[in-house]
Amino acid sequence: MCSRPEPPEPLRRVAVVGGTHGNEMSGVCLARYWLRAPGELQRPSFSAVPVLANPAATAACRRYVDCDLNRAFTSAFLTARAHPDDPYEVTRARELNQLLGPKASGQAFDFVLDLHNTTASMGTCLVAESSHDVFAMHLCHHLQLQSPELPCRVFLYQLPGEESYSVHSVAKSGLGLELGPQPQGVLRADLLARMRALVAAALDFIQLFNQGPGGRDGLRHQASHTGTAFPAFEMEAYRKVSSVDFPRTETGDLAGTVHPQLQDRDFEPLRPGAPIFQMFGGKDVLYEGESTVYPVFINEAAYYEKGIAFFQTEKLTFSVPALPGLAPAPSPAP
Amino acid sequence: MCSRPEPPEPLRRVAVVGGTHGNEMSGVCLARYWLRAPGELQRPSFSAVPVLANPAATAACRRYVDCDLNRAFTSAFLTARAHPDDPYEVTRARELNQLLGPKASGQAFDFVLDLHNTTASMGTCLVAESSHDVFAMHLCHHLQLQSPELPCRVFLYQLPGEESYSVHSVAKSGLGLELGPQPQGVLRADLLARMRALVAAALDFIQLFNQGPGGRDGLRHQASHTGTAFPAFEMEAYRKVSSVDFPRTETGDLAGTVHPQLQDRDFEPLRPGAPIFQMFGGKDVLYEGESTVYPVFINEAAYYEKGIAFFQTEKLTFSVPALPGLAPAPSPAP
Fold first, then answer.
1. B182 and B245, same domain (yes or no)
2. A66-123 residue pLDDT tens
3. In this structure, is residue A227 part of a structural domain?
4. Could you say which residues bind Zn(2+) here (chains A, B) (predicted)?
5. Can you tell me the distance from the alpha carbon of A62 to that of A333, in angstroms, rounded to the nearest whole number?
6. Is A21 annotated as a binding residue?
7. E-assigned strand segments in chain B
8. Which end of chain B is more exposed for a tag (fewer CB within 10 A), N or C?
9. Are residues A140 and A38 part of one domain?
10. Across-strand partners of B114?
């Protein structure tokens, strides 16, 4: 994913993707609903396209059929010659790259919003590759301001030097919405409503951006106060540092599980010496790191097979530069 | 399942089954642990056998591979001639019927405890076929008395005239433990501890029964007070009446989900006119029955494919007769 080039252009080609993981039901059901009734995704300056990313996994109500689609958007997969034995999700990643990309090209979609659920107690989490996607950071800031009473954290998942691999990395800018806790295969009304409100607010923000300084929307007070459409701000985020696996037996079975004092404590500080696992035999395993970390995705069902009981993140604050507004639209004829 | 015959005999052949559904992790992990360290399942008068019921589904962390094992213990499946194309779970049901049964025979295990989780907010639920299994009802009563501060409801799942089909129906007596909410594929320490304590209490009860009136366990005060080993009592339970499907589109997709006012309200009264579903289009669907029911398994992930959003139950109270104690053991030689 690259930052939006200068000079900025309106975002016309926007997609809202659900069912990247076929058992994360908020996005699955919203995408299916919007495919029948897309009116909710329309704004004056653009119409977002609903996409059901993984139809086969969605039909089977599984995360994936052959491999994790949301790890398949790498150049190795996208550029290799197609083969009949390719995993279903690799083929599907190429199709989505044609639809929404090609990745890193000028033809790529302007923005992709990708809808996820987690079994972890993540609340509302905004998932971005890194802080370099300035448009996405401004969108995060906007979403945080919409519901200041609800925590809405930003998680930066890309490790240094790591190639981007997510579905939203295909577009020029993108963001994942991660809502939890919700069991796989279950659709909770409360999370559905929250997801829907976040998508609406995100599309409103894109509309706001597209309107340019000439827009008459009342929300444009930021511009009139500062002379910049979207001024710089300080952002707090949680950046992935590493992952921690469950304790296991010599044959790979679980030998313990997440400690009750860590369970459901996503984004809270984990200090050296605090318990992280409870062994089936009764003993506690303590966190032996030297500095405080902030665990996220604690006890996410889909990560057992990846060898991840939780991610360790560092909490950081950084400056996000102003987002230049569009050139004022020509005044309408009197 | 038949009630235990008179005169009562001690229960020597007892099994604790986990992984009947391969993604219900409390039982999966306990069964695996006990297969390595069975000491926790031993009592003076018997040693319960740990069984991992569905190894293939457990390895894949799925409910089942081909079909639901916990619906496969019917005479049609158990007595049909084996065929190489049989579903995996049908073959496995026959194997378990050999190990724990044969069903309805004198050779069957005395008692099977089967460990389950649900994504519904069922708390601690004891699942019995019907009120006719007097030993199981006494066990339920015992478990309820162990932790009076925690609700511990009894769910009777057999519809009138329905053949028994569960794994524990193979034994002379049996019970399912259903703990939730826990997402599929997730092991929560709190539910694991609760499941383990319930199993321990169940085995203690069987030991208590086996000891007979000559037992010197302090818990036998019931016998000394009443002259009957396990006196009659009144039991409250929730009996399945019918199921209710989600609202769906003409193609079978979900058109709405469980209403926020019903979600997480398992075992609470649902009165005529109360909302049960929220349509994606915004409207509420109301409960149109004429009498109050008690929904259970509300929004259980595994039941979407069965066309079940929740079960309607009726709450009933009935008398459970005394459980005759064993004949006093001969006094030990002086």
1. no
2. 999 999 999 999 999 999 999 999 999 999 999 999 999 999 999 999 999 999 999 9
3. no
4. 21, 24, 116
5. 55
6. yes
7. 14-18, 42-43, 46-47, 49-52, 111-117, 123-128, 152-156, 173-180, 233-244, 256-258, 275-279, 284-286, 294-296, 310-320
8. C
9. yes
10. B17, B176
Same domain, A202 and A276: no
Q: Tens digits of per-residue pLDDT, B142-172?
A: 999 998 899 999 999 999 899 999 999 999 9
Cross-chain CB nearest to A263 (options B188, B302, B305): B188
In this complex, do A186 and B299 lie within 8 Å of one another by their Cβ atoms?
A: yes
Cα distance between the two ends of chain A:
42
Contacts 24+ apart (CB under 8 A), B259-262: B259/A189, B259/B284, B259/B285, B260/A189, B260/A190, B262/B295, B262/B298, B262/B310
Active site includes A290?
Answer: no
Asked whether A271 and A202 are in contact (CB, 8 A), the reply is no
Each residue's pLDDT tens digit, A175-213 = 999 999 999 999 999 999 999 999 999 999 999 999 987
Residues A83, A121: one domain?
Answer: yes
Domain annotation covers residue B216: no
Q: Could you tell me if B101 and B240 lie in one domain?
A: no
Number of domains chain A contains: 2
Place of tokens 């034995």: A85
ipTM of the complex: 0.92
According to the model, what pLDDT value does residue A214 have?
58
User: CA-CA distance, A164 to B324, in Å (whole number)?
Assistant: 69
> Do B281 and B154 belong to one domain?
no
Q: pLDDT band at B8, cuts 50/70/90?
A: confident
Q: A-chain residues within 8 Å CB-CB of B304?
A: 61, 185
Write down the residue that tokens 């050139």 correspond to.
A327
β B123-128/B173-180 pair status? antiparallel
Residues B28 and B131 in one domain: yes
Could A183 and B29 be called an inter-chain contact, meaning their C-beta atoms sit closer than 8 Å? Answer: no
Residue B330 covered by a domain: no
Q: Which two three-digit tokens encode residue B145?
A: 């008395």
The residue from A178, A234, A300, A314 that is catalytic is A178
Q: Are residues B257 and B308 in the same domain?
A: yes
- The H or E element spanning position A58 is helix A55-60
The CATH number given to whatever domain includes residue B278 is 2.20.25.160
Is residue A218, in this structure, part of any structural domain at all? no
Lowest mean pLDDT among B62-76, B124-138, B223-237: B223-237
b/e sequence B142-152, b meaning 16+ C-beta within 10 Å? bbbeeeeeeeb
Which CATH number is A156's domain given?
3.40.630.10
Contacts of B282 (CB under 8 A, 6+ apart): none
Q: Which pair of tokens denotes residue B71?
A: 């619906």
Query: Which structural domain, as residue segments, surrounds residue A287?
Result: 235-319
Is A116 annotated in some ligand binding site?
yes
Q: Which residues pair with A175 in a beta bridge?
A: A113
Expressed in percent and rounded to 5, the helix, strand and coil fractions of chain A are 30, 25, 45
Q: What percentage of residues in chain A have a pLDDT greater than 90?
A: 87
- Nearest by CB to residue B280, choosing from A29, A188, A249, is A29
Within 10 angstroms of residue B13's Cβ, the number of other Cβ atoms is 17
* Long-range Cβ contact pairs of B138-146 (< 8 A, separation 24 or more): B138/B205, B138/B230, B138/B320, B138/B323, B139/B175, B139/B202, B139/B205, B139/B206, B140/B175, B140/B235, B141/B233, B141/B235, B141/B320, B142/B201, B142/B202, B142/B205, B142/B208, B143/B198, B143/B201, B143/B202, B143/B205, B146/B197, B146/B201
